[in-house]
Amino acid sequence: MREHQPQKNGRPLPPVETRWKKGASGNPRGRPKKQDCLSQLLREEIQKICPADREKRTWKQLIVFATLQLAMKGNPTALKEVWERLDGKVLQSEKLQLGGVGGKHITIEVVYAEQPNESRTAQTKPSRNSDA
C-alpha cells in the first residue's frame, strides 16, 4: 500500500509492477549508433576506389598524392600539412622571455626618421590659433 502513496514533495510513485528492477538498466541496448553523419559518410567514401582513376587507386591515395605534388611545387599549406603529418606539430619548448639577461630591464628607444619635406612644411604652415 505504501508504494502507491504520493511522495512528500512531487508526483506519486509508479506502481510496483512497472518500476525498474534492481540491477536492471533503463536503457539495455544503449545509445543508438550515429548513422548518417557527414564524417562517417566521408570515411566510407574515401576508402572506395575512384572510378575515374585508371590505376584503380582509392580517393585517399589520390588525396595524398595530390598533397605531395602541391608540396613539391612549393605550396606552403600543403608543405606544412605534410611535415605535420610526418613529424607531428612543432611544440614551442621555451617560453618567450620578456626581460634582459639575468632578469635585467631592457630599454627600447624608438626613433622616427623625419622626411626632409615634412620638417620644412611644419615650420612654414601657420597655425590656426595665430589669428587670435
Task: Provide the gyration radius in Å.
Answer: 37 Å
Number of strands: 0
Assign an overall shape: flat
| Unreliable sequence segments | none
Largest sheet: none
Query: Distance between termini?
Result: 101 Å
What is the string of SSEs from the N terminus onward? HHHH
Helix content: 25-40%
Class based on secondary structure composition and strand pairing: mainly alpha
Number of alpha- plus pi-helical segments: 4
Percent of residues in β-strands: under 5%
Mean pLDDT: 78
Structure description:
The protein is mainly α and 132 residues long. The protein has 4 helices and no strands. The protein has a domain at 54-88. Helices cover 33% and strands 0% of the residues. The mean pLDDT is 78.
Give a quick rundown of the structure:
With 132 residues, the chain is mainly α. The chain has helices at residues 38-46, 59-72, 76-87, 116-124. It is built from four helices and no strands.
Features of the shown structure:
132 residues, 0% strand, mainly alpha, 33% helix, flat
Write the layout of secondary structure elements.
Layout: H1 38-46, H2 59-72, H3 76-87, H4 116-124
